[in-house]
Amino acid sequence: MTAAPGGAGVVRIVIADDQPLIRQGFAMILGAQDDLRVVGEAGDGVAAIARVRDEQPDVVLMDIRMPVMDGIEATRRLSAEGAASRVLILTTFGHDEYVVGALAAGAAGFVLKDATPEELVHAVRVVAGGDALLSPAVTTRLIARVLPSLSTPDPSPTGAAALELLTDREREVLLLLAAGGSNAEIGEALFISETTVKTHISHLLTKLQLRDRVQAVIAAYEMGLLSPGSR
Fold it and tell me: Which domains does the chain have, with CATH numbers?
């Protein structure tokens, strides 16, 4: 990572979208910021992967529906390659099921195509800083609405085996995380510091072999730890 929000470095960005006007518009918005720089563009998933390999950007703005190869498959392949670039999915709420698939494939979050310039810039900075987007509560609502149509939560045997890897405290943290709690809210509920919450999250991500807290939310539903409508 070459930069973090508020840092002195520059966040390098690749924009992948099959609509040139969208790419140009986003490039103008992001390029106007001193700490952001667009280093490449692509019109399909295959070209996006090539750009990422060549430019090694910090963030990839990835459209889902593209020719040749869609954004979900491109994200999955980048994750499989161990690419350090963080993928931020471009979407609309009309295609929620695709968003969940992209998050499961390794994306760090999503941003709406009709987001304001301020929201777009904020999204890139958040993802570049190593966090996941959107807020836990928003992500949880999305997953709770869509996941039932994608898979059936099954706490056994796979889910139960995964949960056995966690300590009681880590399970509590995962449950609160999946329910939409921020680090501060989790800490308050469990009477521990935010630093301790972050440590527990880091440990459970490692044990469950998950990339970030977005995937942890998905895993919690898939393991049956939470069910849609239980929040």
Answer: 11-134 (3.40.50.2300), 153-222 (1.10.10.10)
